[in-house]
Amino acid sequence: MIVVLTPHPSTSDVRYVERRVRELGYKPHTIRGAVRTIVAAVGDETKRQTLEVLATLPMVEKVIPIQKRYRLVSREVEPQTYRVRVGSVVMGGPAFHVIAGPCSVESERQILSTARAVRAAGATLLRGGAFKPRTSPYDFQGLGGAGLRILRRVKEETGLPIVSEAVNEKDLDSLIEVADVIQIGARNAMNYSLLEAAARTGRPVILKRGMAQTIEEWLLSAEYLAKNGNHQVILCERGIRTFERATRNTLDLSAVVLAKLESNLPVIVDPSHAAGRHDLVAALSNAAVAAGADGLMIEVHEHPEQAASDGSQQLTHEAFRRLMQGLQPFLRAAGRTKPPAPRRVLHRGKTRR
Amino acid sequence: MIVVLTPHPSTSDVRYVERRVRELGYKPHTIRGAVRTIVAAVGDETKRQTLEVLATLPMVEKVIPIQKRYRLVSREVEPQTYRVRVGSVVMGGPAFHVIAGPCSVESERQILSTARAVRAAGATLLRGGAFKPRTSPYDFQGLGGAGLRILRRVKEETGLPIVSEAVNEKDLDSLIEVADVIQIGARNAMNYSLLEAAARTGRPVILKRGMAQTIEEWLLSAEYLAKNGNHQVILCERGIRTFERATRNTLDLSAVVLAKLESNLPVIVDPSHAAGRHDLVAALSNAAVAAGADGLMIEVHEHPEQAASDGSQQLTHEAFRRLMQGLQPFLRAAGRTKPPAPRRVLHRGKTRR
Amino acid sequence: MIVVLTPHPSTSDVRYVERRVRELGYKPHTIRGAVRTIVAAVGDETKRQTLEVLATLPMVEKVIPIQKRYRLVSREVEPQTYRVRVGSVVMGGPAFHVIAGPCSVESERQILSTARAVRAAGATLLRGGAFKPRTSPYDFQGLGGAGLRILRRVKEETGLPIVSEAVNEKDLDSLIEVADVIQIGARNAMNYSLLEAAARTGRPVILKRGMAQTIEEWLLSAEYLAKNGNHQVILCERGIRTFERATRNTLDLSAVVLAKLESNLPVIVDPSHAAGRHDLVAALSNAAVAAGADGLMIEVHEHPEQAASDGSQQLTHEAFRRLMQGLQPFLRAAGRTKPPAPRRVLHRGKTRR
Amino acid sequence: MIVVLTPHPSTSDVRYVERRVRELGYKPHTIRGAVRTIVAAVGDETKRQTLEVLATLPMVEKVIPIQKRYRLVSREVEPQTYRVRVGSVVMGGPAFHVIAGPCSVESERQILSTARAVRAAGATLLRGGAFKPRTSPYDFQGLGGAGLRILRRVKEETGLPIVSEAVNEKDLDSLIEVADVIQIGARNAMNYSLLEAAARTGRPVILKRGMAQTIEEWLLSAEYLAKNGNHQVILCERGIRTFERATRNTLDLSAVVLAKLESNLPVIVDPSHAAGRHDLVAALSNAAVAAGADGLMIEVHEHPEQAASDGSQQLTHEAFRRLMQGLQPFLRAAGRTKPPAPRRVLHRGKTRR
Known about the structure:
4 copies of one chain form a homotetramer. The longest helix of chain A has 17 residues, at 317-333. By secondary structure, chain A is α/β, with parallel strands linked by helices. Chain A has 10 helices and 16 strands. Chain A folds into 2 domains: 2-64, 2-Layer Sandwich (Alpha-Beta Plaits), CATH 3.30.70; 84-352, Alpha-Beta Barrel (TIM Barrel). In chain A, α2 (108-121) packs parallel to α3, α2 (108-121) packs parallel to α10 and α9 (281-291) packs parallel to α10 (317-333). Chain A has an 8-stranded parallel β-barrel, surrounded by 6 helices. At the A-B interface, α5 and α6 of A face α5 and α6 of B.
């Protein structure tokens, strides 16, 4: 860390700061410049307390961290991209995976119909929310346990691994009886208790970026998962909140490029929540592929105008089929391979095609 | 809601939209304009499904909600400001309350010393975190149960009611054995499971605004509490995340004015987290009083430069004393009364001075 | 426009609003709902004064505009994409154009070297700033007239049309003696005087999006150009300012998709200013192609670490060559054709290859 | 500046960076840490080229500036607050000044009526726009020269010094024949050509903060004025653009506190543009006083619901009178004095009461 002193510090001021730096476990190096004096503090910042408390001293103007605060998910520490295995599906390798399905589980008929349609179009995982975090308490909150039972039957029927969102710790046990991947939504991206509990299940986790989360904070949320023993983490960029309201959020594809540079985790993109409107989803999906994403998560509904939630951003089956077709030339340009269709799983461990 | 159609819709397009509006339980009124045709949908939007799903129809350009989505916390519905009672303290009335204390509970000596100092300076509630949601898993996470036990002893000693943060549902029971007010932090402002569980405790709740939460969404989070039977809610503005990084967050005092206009809840301000630096806290506290806030929450530490967390924004005892002194003329200007010092509570229900 | 009244308005309140709506030239249609009463005002909003002033009335809660405020640049009004012709170069057609060159003109040697390198790599226009708007008055402000003379010689030598930024009206005359395209930078995106003056030159304009400009406001800035007789406008997305500071700005590719849906103007992307760091530029360029952009503007410098401005985001000649190579498969996937190399222009009107 | 190297740099990498630092005129000090190696570059950053170009080197991870980039407007360099004299009015001293008047000049009758009303209520300067920068080219653009002539007559009649906005360089000469203070609006806050031209007039300048301008960039815009010989600068906070749209902008009172700490310029607040709605203006004015602002700029219109621009945020004469009354206790609390009513100026130099 760099401790920047206020202009023209006295010698005793400098000595005091140096002593405090030493007490906190770092080695101080003082450099007196033309205008500013700084004390560079040498030591591993992830293993010691931060020096930011020194900013409170009258002779200190600011404290600037130098080092990155994440370790386990950092490509610097472990350069190889982690591969996340979900049943027969491997994310983070050359194959590009599309997760598709409705925002909410509404009925078995609905899920089965959409699951078949997205499987036929090339999706390899099925998404569907049984527990829905909704901004208004008067909005549809999901079918809960009944939703999970529907997902289980549809999974048995179609062989598609299931991605479903966790909204609290107490439902995790029942969730992972069905979900192959636990989704942590944007609203819970900094709910560290939930992250720790999700990590302890050992189940792969899709970690959405919080709507006001910096890339560093997002990777630190991933670090919470890794530090609690679960490196089966897929990052998901879903747009950040900005002044622009023509789209629901602002898709930040630079964050995808950066997250892949900085971390060793697979990164996917959710263009549906980013745009909040169906007519931008296909073009943004193409852009995500070109930016280097490892997969997509797309909302699809048989009749979006009747959906119980987020109707305006869901694609019809036909629009999704066209999106998948349109994606192919970009996948080839990006050197991505097509994943095999998921095998149907009869019992845990046994599979058939 | 207003359904805006794409230009020059056919008659059958208009009929189709009107039918869908009717099916969703609203009464359609179509108005053909020079440029745009709109279908105004009449019906209570908090009791029916939103029409936003219609935005997915090809002949619909957008759907504009008219009505506010919160009801119980709306001043329109209930014009009287709710008073929140915490022991002998009443928030939301003419008295202005200052909650003060360290970011984290570190030791009994520390808390007791700060509790006495802030009580002497005029604070009427004590804050202190036993469970700390920290951005990095390598940062100090709070003393947990040991922290709660310290808070209990200091509360018995000083009579100050305790404000402490909940970070998950499972610790709520032990938290409310000590905390008189449950704080929901900015990171959990949209953790609806936690809000519902906190509501069910019946304990007053301080609801911080999420760092990217609109005022409407903040009031909807409060509505979650009220709808689950707990109207003992205090809103707390603590700064939002913007492009400006000279301050940790951007304190939004307009939100205080608006929240007081729109809702019937007391509103307080946390200038410490907003600024993220101690040298702005006093001036922002004065501004909060003048904007009409009902109270303040301020971080105070005996030795901020040794604090285990958030040192750079904590005030020394002496700085807090000066802040409280400086606040008095503004409190008089705002017509605020000085609350009595809290009585010491011997047993639940019994008190002595 | 929709005028939303406060709850339970009296009949005379409603009559008063209707009268005011009529006086402002609109036809009122009142709809009394369960909760809200609205007055829909029918009339062309681009030809009359806005009704937003009515929001000041005590019985009015808010006024919601329905209609888009741009007309000439709207695809609704004129569905065909405008083609912008710059010498032998046509933007907005099937060919994809890359504008490349240094941030600032520093010397003839520098510009000539970079111009040759980017031409060889496939760029079809040369960028270079003679007038530089810099955040600090102590930073390099550009070579001014001397810079323009350098650009003219390099243009004669290489045949590359020149893109250069205007920072005020008084230099426009000398600028257009050399520049084939006038660039309006992000800082001047809402400098309407400069827009009008630039429009009157008749020269094509690249209009960068302001760093806090909504898409609607950006199109309205373009409308200023079109309304002043110049429809030779190319929109350029260059990132918006958000809370994320790991990148200089946040590239908003949704804005590219939306601007192409909403307007009839070509849209290009400047990934260099968006990212502010060279290591993201290639991936973001690929993403821009996939999102449907019509071109790119990329900063290239022979020795970025010696650049007089914006060094950290400029690519070396070699990095640019690799970027152009990497772009080809994505251009094919997007169905884009390769433009012919620009012909050298001997005199105005005469050309040779 | 601090140059942070990538992990484990070779000795020759370090030597190369040190050489480049020296070539750019700084003295390098290398510190090898446990994790990171840094090269601290000693030298005055406002007198040399920035080292940020070094970020482009492969062995450099980032470059962190330490020093502030403004000098003349910095309180560090000149601790005394500048007093800005406008006729008989002095801003930046103990007296608190309120600038009031309509958004746009519409007619002599309108301006005269409002000027008398605001003077009677205690305002000491009159605002009114003759040149209006409007987001849409179809909106009212101001009366131009005719507006200036009206302002001149009203100034002679009432003695109120005039604040009016400049939107380009070519109208500056006619503007300063009438305006005692040149206002630079938020849209032109980074239009450095206009800033330089405004500085050269020698007339006091009110510099509004750009809607996405950091505090540092705002002070650098002020530095442009000071560096061009004009230190008669008043900073004006008017809200920044954030995700929150319930208010037109987000008033950033922390920026007022910080600008007064960091710079030696008077700082005023424009709550009208910040809020964009009249019902928040009074409370935000009180808050601005308490935060330490030196004045206010408030939009007032005889009949806001008939205003040619920005009607929804303008106060009626009566509402302004009440605001001024309500402000008094807060001005007393802040230790502010009441300025004398401006004297009527007969000719330049001669005055009468």
